[in-house]
Design brief:
- The structure is a single chain.
- The chain is α/β, with parallel strands linked by helices.
- Helices cover 48% and strands 7% of the residues.
- The chain contains 19 helices and 5 strands.
- The protein has helices at residues 19-27, 39-42, 49-68, 80-91, 104-119, 144-153, 194-207, 212-215, 227-231, 237-244, 248-266, 288-296, 302-314, 319-332, 337-347, 353-363, 380-387, 392-397, 424-439, and strands at 4-9, 30-37, 74-77, 93-99, 123-127.
- It has a 5-stranded parallel sheet with strand order 3-2-1-4-5, with helices on both faces.
- Helix 4 runs parallel beside helix 5.
- The longest helix has 20 residues, at 49-68.
- It is globular.
């Protein structure tokens, strides 16, 4: 077994439960772990300074884990279809192992890479690793519940421990992890890397998951905050499912993650269009000044403003707050969901095209898993009273309301503060009329 293979790390920045790394180590004497910094991602349609900073921290942590095991992480800069064949030739590698992905960009990129590798007589090996189960295996689903039932019956792959030793070529040149000039940085982000991810995962499994079913919609807490680490693969979704065990309320959320990847895999046009194409005809007549007020957290609805300020400060937002803020933009301010999707992608550390797009289309009533528009037309006052009943979330992120008693905290204009920028009752009727017109 005197051979070498590349292991191409992408959205799987870990050493625990890493199928491509395990497969390469089992089949080859030496491996070359590599990450390719591709400007089409770093500066492309979904560019994000905060997410790039998180990525670089993940790479530092991954390199340290590989060095601890006798290996290293090669950093290449360019397009993978060019850089991977060059590295394979340099180190005499005969194969490249990587985990399959689902986005339109990833699918096109991987096809180019596989063609380039085969041109150089290098064998590409796709493995699982990014999802709990094989999202391409079920027939195409557009409704979550039947997908969930099918997903639960899918076979599960073996979970792998971290390798004790990673043997690399003796002349390996790793290269520097760059220090990039980044914009749109958030002030108080979660730290990147598998070390922090596993610490958070273990704490969650020990102390938090037992109350998830009753607390997951409380915007002041109750969720794992593992989504950025899942996005970059600092923790394995498959391992997390296994360790979550009988907690179906939590594993159901992992199924939603797989569902949206499954949908985008089968409907790549969703990245730019509504799944329900007739609703691309909605007349979005919202005002730019209202978009700015939403983005900056000054709509006058405390739960909306709290969510948007949390996002701007941390690069993360509770999922219930994401649904409330997104619904408000689309159905109270009548602004195209794609503008909100783009804003979230610029700031979210867990900015995942499939999940972000799926959630925005879901709450905008233009996507899969359909329901009547009126069922997903949230009243921000009632949402605050239901999901922040003690006002902890709002008081943290909207401190100018500290003088408002709890019974008026969802309606601070009744306590002398400014009126909100729109009247929900009025905008609700406008939304129902706009969707009806688009369908007619």
């Amino acid at each position: 077994m005197n051979s070498t293979a590349l292991v191409w790390f992408r959205r799987d920045l870990r050493v625990h439960d890493h199928p491509p790394l395990r497969a390469a180590l089992d089949a080859h004497e030496r491996v070359v772990p590599v990450f390719v910094l591709d400007d089409r991602l770093l500066a492309g349609r979904h560019a994000s300074g905060g997410r790039t900073r998180f990525l670089l921290e993940c790479l530092e942590d991954l390199r340290a884990a590989l060095v601890q095991r006798g290996g290293n992480l090669v950093i290449a800069r360019g397009t993978p279809e060019r850089e991977l064949p060059k590295l394979a030739e340099r180190y005499g590698a005969t194969a490249v192992y990587f985990a399959s992905d689902a986005s339109p960009f990833a699918m096109r990129r991987d096809q180019r890479v596989e063609a380039a590798l085969r041109t150089h007589s290098i064998e590409p090996h796709r493995t699982p690793g990014n999802f709990v189960a094989d999202i391409g295996k079920p027939r195409p689903y557009a409704v979550f519940t039947p997908f969930w039932r099918a997903w639960r019956e899918l076979p599960r792959r073996e979970i792998h421990g971290a390798p004790r030793v990673v043997t690399v070529p003796s002349d390996l040149v790793a290269g520097e992890i760059p220090r990039l000039q980044l914009s749109d940085l958030v002030a108080d982000p979660l730290p990147g890397g598998e070390t922090h991810a596993r610490r958070r995962m273990n704490a969650w499994l020990r102390d938090g998951i037992g109350r998830y079913a009753e607390r997951h919609d409380r915007v002041s807490g109750g969720t794992s905050m593992l989504s950025p680490y899942l996005h970059f693969g600092c923790v394995s979704a498959r391992e997390l499912e296994e360790k979550a065990g009988r907690h179906d309320a939590y594993t159901r959320q992992l199924a939603w993650r797989d569902f949206y990847a499954h949908v985008l895999l089968h409907h790549p046009d969703n990245a730019r269009h509504a799944y329900r194409r007739e609703l691309d005809a909605i007349d979005w007549d919202g005002r730019d000044e209202h978009f700015d007020a939403w983005r900056e957290g000054r709509t006058g609805y405390p739960i909306v403003d709290a969510g948007m300020r949390e996002l701007a400060a941390t690069g993360w937002m509770h999922n219930r707050a994401r649904l409330i803020t997104a619904c408000f933009l689309v159905k109270d301010l009548h602004i195209d969901w794609r503008r909100g999707e783009q804003h979230f992608m610029r700031l979210l550390l867990d900015g995942d095209e499939a999940n972000n797009n799926g959630n925005w289309q879901w709450i905008s009533s233009v996507g899969v898993d359909p329901a009547p528009v009126s069922r997903r037309l949230y009243n921000p006052v009632l949402q605050q009273q239901r999901h922040d009943p003690r006002g902890e979330y709002v008081r943290r992120w909207v401190p100018e309301l500290e003088d408002v008693p709890l019974e008026q905290l969802a309606t601070p204009w009744e306590a002398g503060h400014e009126d909100p920028i729109v009247d929900h009752a009025v905008e609700r009727r406008r939304t129902l009329d706009a969707y009806a017109a688009a369908r007619s």
